[in-house]
């Protein structure tokens, strides 16, 4: 028993020292100034403190302006509700009550950190539903109806978006309104590789809103922060001397990580801010405090620039490799790679495995094109459903036939897709993601990438 205790102590000290040593190798976020206007987007109430409580403190100390925008009211966390209220219910009013509780918790936490309620926006879009809105609810499609609150428009009267239908047009309009109000120089937003759909969709809406406002708004710097990722961060609990490091499979693949080093006082204040989120603590008491580390971490994937190339010599751009796999059963059995290229009016997509593709391999590829010449609401929202023998295409909720779209198996370990750019209205950008499942690996390759077509 003594030997085991001694080993555990040595292991903890080694891990702590290693983490701090690695942190020093990351570039630091530039210092804030009094001319900065900081806008923090939080998918749910508490994400603003998880990802950026240190940012808030340092920016305010520098004299910068700080604003926070909460995307949802976080009204769909049923497990947290049960633990907090100590009762079980599926009544619509109780979910809305939880949304109001979480809003107040966030306002109290931000007041403690130094941000007044007059600089906090609440939109109130559906918790656990915004990705479906991005992918399917545009144009003539009916507004999304929340599985939990069972409403199809923003129900919170005090929110900026009260009464807005749950559609892509509503969210995009409101995100742009916040941008034009704040005119930010720096934006902190959820990460495109986060495993939570609301976190992913907020990043996507932000990208589209900024493209729409290119002529009216000076381009701000964007700093994505990660919250949800399998088995991360570890260990759980308050360890103020440990650094927050990227998940191991993100360490060496394309993401340009940057760090914000916090003082002991800033760490403690961040940790104290978590205590205001009383509804979220009972069901996972140590989780929030895990993010009160010696630094905060930010990073994004670079834009993949697709230049026109010859069909005989395709210029492939790698989107991710094995380091980007989020969920898996056995890392040693399969590695998955995704590549994009552009040639003669076609988008080429290649999915490669480290073994033969069998009937057990299925995948979905999402293509959300953006054009400066067409309203984003009118652009297709494509999902390609792929098996070894079949390629099917869907635009929002409807199956569609795409002329000249082709799929083939190459060398028994790769799927090659040719997709006509005319079917995407010859976009300037494409937001894309792949999800792949095999009989050996359950992979959720949830990192959305920005493709720029040159």
UniProtKB/TrEMBL annotation:
Highest taxon above the source species: Bacteria
SUPFAM superfamilies with a match to the protein in the record: LmbE-like
Coiled-coil regions, chain positions: none
GO molecular function: hydrolase activity, acting on carbon-nitrogen (but not peptide) bonds, in linear amides
Signal keyword on record: yes
Keywords carried by this UniProt record: Signal
KW Signal (keyword) present: yes
Signal peptide segment: 1-19
Gene3D superfamilies named among the record's database cross-references: LmbE-like
Protein name: PIG-L family deacetylase
Organism: Candidatus Taenaricola geysiri
